[in-house]
From TrEMBL:
HTH arsR-type domain mapped to chain residues: 11-91
GO molecular function: DNA binding; DNA-binding transcription factor activity
PANTHER family: SLL0088 PROTEIN (PTHR38600:SF2), TRANSCRIPTIONAL REGULATORY PROTEIN (PTHR38600)
Keywords noted in UniProt: DNA-binding
Keyword DNA-binding among record annotations: yes
InterPro entries: ArsR-like_HTH (IPR011991), HTH_ArsR_DNA-bd_dom (IPR001845), WH-like_DNA-bd_sf (IPR036388), WH_DNA-bd_sf (IPR036390)
Lineage: Bacteria, Bacillati, Bacillota, Bacilli, Bacillales
Pfam family, one: HTH_5
Listed CDD domains: HTH_ARSR
Protein name per UniProt: Winged helix-turn-helix domain-containing protein
């Protein structure tokens, strides 16, 4: 699975703009599913799921990854071709569709975050030490609002992805065989808003 797929066709944008397909895509980014599995999880008819899968496959957003026979029935497993999607320059004039496809995928990410939090083990959120230093905590939960230029924000994004790349490299290191390794789920969202959400901005220079 590719880390990022560049969308080059308007049909791909339209396909991802559909809320149901966006939800299907989030499931298929996680792992392969059959139409039956998606039908049960999304509480939709097999026919409706089949239609949406065909649309996603037609637009090269998902692919058939394996087949298994079960009870005389051939099951087809589909998976997303990438973990993330980015529109090509040629598609940027389709502002409405670009925006809506991004919005729908972020909404599905938010829903996935909620379900993951609710299903996480109790010890995930235990504080073993009383500290105002986040590095002493076993989890991260924070919301921020900042006022910067587009250029500054994009520079920060580069640093963020570089940092996550370093963490993924550590995770994939075959020599990292420590028995106390644990799984951690990380999700981040950042986007422009119309107005401040918090009434007071933080005073970085000290004071009340």
């Amino acid at each position: 699975m590719k880390p990022i797929l560049t969308l080059t066709e308007h049909g791909q944008l339209k396909s991802l703009s559909d809320p149901i397909r966006a939800e299907i895509m989030m499931r298929l980014i996680e792992k392969p599913h059959t139409g039956q599995m998606l039908s049960e999880k999304l509480n939709l008819s097999r026919a409706k799921i089949h239609y949406h899968l065909k649309e996603l496959e037609k637009n090269n957003l998902i692919k058939l990854v394996k087949k298994e026979e079960k009870g005389g029935v051939m099951q087809k497993f589909y998976q997303s071709v990438a973990r993330g999607f980015s529109p090509s320059t040629e598609l940027l004039p389709h502002v409405k569709d670009v925006s809506e496809s991004s919005r729908q995928l972020l909404l599905q990410m938010a829903e996935k975050n909620k379900k993951t939090i609710l299903s996480a083990p109790e010890n995930s959120f235990q504080l073993n030490v009383s500290s105002e230093n986040p590095s002493d905590w076993g989890f991260v939960g924070s919301m921020w609002q900042v006022e910067v230029t587009d250029k500054q924000f994009k520079e920060w994004i580069k640093k963020y992805f570089k940092l996550m790349g370093e963490l993924r490299s550590i995770s994939r290191n075959s020599e990292n065989t420590s028995e106390d390794k644990k799984y951690f789920y990380i999700s981040t969202m950042a986007f422009e808003i119309d107005e401040l959400i918090f009434e007071e901005m933080e005073n970085e220079n000290g004071g009340d």
